[in-house]
């Protein structure tokens, strides 16, 4: 299927990574969609920005740390991870607090490029309007 005929799927992540199953379920659904060659992107809003935090420690909550899986998304052609700037700022976070997530651009001799795209609320709203399918977790 050509790129212009593929539906655009946006997975919106609003929940913290641990304490509920939402973040892990979202990640699993994204990987499944990408395996079926969907045009997949993710948005991290509200407490969802915590899913991208570097150096996550989960021993205290008794859950497996799945955060490193985000770094494999590029291998599944998932290259657009939108992070809402205001959500970061409201939680006292900056881009430096997040783990580096990159993909290899085969058109540029496999150069590593960042997957995280920082947008403000108005840009996020505009992005949401352009999607064919939106799933919120």
Q: Describe it for me?
A:
This protein has helices spanning 22-35, 85-90, 121-129; strands spanning 8-13, 39-44, 81-84, 102-105, 111-114, 116-119, 133-136. The protein is an alpha/beta fold. The chain has a single domain, classed as Hypothetical Protein Ychn, Chain: A, CATH 3.40.1260.10. The radius of gyration is 15 Å and the shape is globular. The two termini are 27 Å apart.
Secondary structural class: alpha/beta
Overall shape: it is globular
What is the highest CATH level, the class?
A: Alpha Beta
Quaternary = single chain
Residue-averaged pLDDT:
93
| CATH homology-level superfamily | DsrEFH-like
Q: Please state the second-level CATH architecture.
A: 3-Layer(aba) Sandwich
**Structurally, how many domains make up the residues?**
1
The parts where pLDDT drops under 50 for at least 5 residues are none
Separation, N- and C-terminal Cα atoms: 27 Å
How many distinct helices?
3
What does the radius of gyration come to?
Answer: 15 Å
Share in β-strands? 15-25%
Helix and strand arrangement:
Elements lengths: L7 E6 L8 H14 L3 E6 L36 E4 H6 L11 E4 L5 E4 L1 E4 L1 H9 L3 E4 L1
Parallel strand pairs: 1-2, 1-7, 2-3, 3-6
Antiparallel strand pairs: 4-5
Q: How would you summarize this macromolecular structure in one to three sentences?
A:
The chain is of the alpha/beta class. Helix content is about 20%, strand content about 25%.
Task: Spell out the key features of this protein.
5-stranded parallel sheet, alpha/beta, single chain, 7 strands, two-stranded antiparallel sheet, 137 residues, Hypothetical Protein Ychn, Chain: A, globular
């Amino acid at each position: 299927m050509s790129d212009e005929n593929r539906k655009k799927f946006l997975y919106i992540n609003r929940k913290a990574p641990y304490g509920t199953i939402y973040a892990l379920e979202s990640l699993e659904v994204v990987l499944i969609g990408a395996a079926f060659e969907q045009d997949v992107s993710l948005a991290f809003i509200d407490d969802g920005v915590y899913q991208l935090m570097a150096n996550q420690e989960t021993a205290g909550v008794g859950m497996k740390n799945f955060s490193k899986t985000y770094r494999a998304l590029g291998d599944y052609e998932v290259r657009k991870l939108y992070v809402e700037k205001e959500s970061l700022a409201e939680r006292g976070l900056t881009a430096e607090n997040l783990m580096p997530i990159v993909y290899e651009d085969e058109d540029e001799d496999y150069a590593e490029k960042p997957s995280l795209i920082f947008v403000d609320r108005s840009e996020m709203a505009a992005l949401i309007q352009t999607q064919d399918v939106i799933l919120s977790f």
